[in-house]
Design goal:
One of its GO terms (molecular function) is DNA-binding transcription factor activity, RNA polymerase II-specific. This is Uu.00g013290.m01.CDS01. Residues 21-49 form the Zn(2)-C6 fungal-type domain. It comes from Anthostomella pinea. By secondary structure, this protein is an all-alpha fold. The protein has three domains: 14-53, Zn(2)-C6 fungal-type DNA-binding domain (CD2-Gal4); 56-206, no CATH class; 227-242 and 254-263 and 292-420, no CATH class. The protein is built from 16 helices and five strands. The protein has helices at residues 2-15, 23-28, 40-44, 69-73, 77-80, 92-101, 115-125, 129-147, 160-180, 185-205, 208-224, 248-257, 290-320, 324-355, 363-381, 389-420, and strands spanning 230-231, 237-238, 267-268, 274-275, 383-384. The strands form two sheets. Strands 2-1-5 form a three-stranded mixed sheet. A hairpin with a 5-residue loop joins strand 3 (267-268) and strand 4. Helix 8 packs antiparallel against helix 9 and helix 9 (160-180) runs antiparallel to helix 10 (185-205). It is globular and about 70 Å long.
Length: 421
């Protein structure tokens, strides 16, 4: 009897030392065959394989069966409150990984400097179900994107992970809509933090038109509820309505300032020959133009990044302004930044016309146009509450939507060409 107890204890002790394998096998304390994306031990026994170590260790997801995804994902607000975090510890690794996963436009391993935003999102997700659902959605969709290789997001959708990511996204949207039905300080904060994640989610999905809508709504909430001090038409300084509101504009500038990961691919002609894309950002150029293009194009992105850095400094000053006199002085800085953006766009058009007059511009340049348009909208709304502002913002928001739609189409074409080469 004693011998059997000792043997039993040794068996239990051995099982608790399982360090690898999928989450399901680790919970069951059985040996996992570590087959990916789903281990055969789970699949063969009819269980749901919960996958391997998550980018966000804090969030150990337990997705429902895929057949129930649409039935339980959208309807009930009650279901969103049943989810609880598995830990209250937020580690630097969690923050770094979420910060890196915010952007899919950039190189995957580039740190875009959104550690503060990631920390606030993770902290809020401990008590805010919509934010938690949004983070779980981003994680699942991002994992799906990275395992699908060069397939277009619209093509590589039929996986349990992708379906689960969409379900969590729907629950985040539904919970957020419920919170905003009676907006208060907490509801607005939740909306702006969710907006940041939603922008990233739509990038993962390749839906840039929807991404632009989230950008417009997030910046609109910031302006409507005065996240920063603003000047009235009579030059009276209006203090910030709520100093605790997250700054979506700062997040967006960091997000789009990072280098573009999409390399330019040669385009196929009708005769099945390859022609090089003559573009400022391309690594493949016409021999006679290569030196000139490569010397001009980095300067275009460098200049736009410089303007973006100056815009962040300007926004920081706006947040700290305490008098109408100081605010009026900042208006000259704002005008200077807008002039710089205008000059940058004129130079970009000149370069494109000279170097590639008949062809479409590189995808990386389209992303720069998107970034330019975001900076325009951010600057227009800063320190301004004039009667003409709404009409001006509507015009620029429409342009943002148009550019985003073009970027979305070109990203889909990029993935299609990657998948076919």
């Amino acid at each position: 009897m004693a011998g059997s107890l000792v043997a039993s204890k040794q068996t239990v002790h051995r099982r608790t030392k399982v360090k690898t394998g999928c989450a399901t096998c680790r919970i069951r304390r059985v040996k996992c065959d570590e087959n990916k994306p789903s281990c055969q031990r789970c699949v063969g026994t009819g269980r749901t394989c919960d996958g391997y170590e998550s980018p966000f260790r804090l969030f150990a997801s337990q997705p429902p069966p895929i057949n129930d995804a649409h039935a339980g994902g959208i309807k009930s607000g009650a279901s969103s409150h049943r989810i609880r975090p598995t830990s209250t510890e937020i580690t630097p690794e969690d923050i770094d990984l979420l910060s890196r996963c915010f952007s899919t436009k950039t190189i995957f391993d580039v740190n875009i400097g959104c550690d503060d935003e990631a920390r606030h999102v993770l902290q809020a997700s401990l008590t805010d179900p919509p934010i938690r659902h949004a983070v779980l959605s981003l994680r699942a969709l991002r994992e799906h994107l990275e395992t699908s290789g060069n397939l277009s997001p619209s093509v590589a959708q039929q996986t349990p992970g992708y379906d689960y990511g969409l379900q969590e996204y729907c629950m985040a949207l539904g919970g957020l809509a419920s919170n905003l039905s009676c907006p208060g300080s907490d509801g607005l904060k939740s909306a702006l933090l969710c907006c940041q994640i939603f922008v990233s989610i739509e990038q993962v999905r390749g839906n840039y038109a929807a991404m632009a809508q989230h950008i417009v709504r997030g910046l609109g909430i910031m302006h409507q509820y005065r996240a920063r001090p603003s000047l009235h038409a009579t030059n009276e300084l209006l203090p910030a309505h709520d100093v605790q509101l997250p700054f979506v504009d700062v997040f967006l500038i960091k997000l789009f300032a990072a280098p573009c990961k999409f390399a330019e691919l040669p385009a196929r002609t009708d005769t099945n020959e390859m022609t090089m894309s003559a573009c400022p950002m391309s690594t493949q150029q016409q021999p006679g133009e290569s030196r000139q293009l490569r010397s001009i194009a980095p300067d275009m992105r460098t200049e736009l990044t410089r303007i973006a850095s100056s815009t962040l400094e300007f926004l920081e000053k706006v947040s700290r302004v305490t008098s109408a006199g100081s605010a009026l002085q900042l208006l000259s800085d704002k005008a200077s930044l807008l002039d710089s953006l205008g000059s940058w766009l004129a130079d970009l058009e000149l370069v494109h016309k000279k170097m590639n007059p008949a062809g479409s511009e590189p995808l990386s340049v389209s992303f720069m146009r998107l970034f330019y348009q975001i900076l325009i909208i951010v600057l227009l709304g800063a320190l301004d509450s004039s009667a003409d502002l709404d009409a001006e913002l509507r015009t620029e928001n429409g342009r943002l939507q148009d550019v985003a739609s073009i970027v979305g189409e070109r990203v889909q074409a990029y993935y299609k060409m990657c998948g076919g080469t």
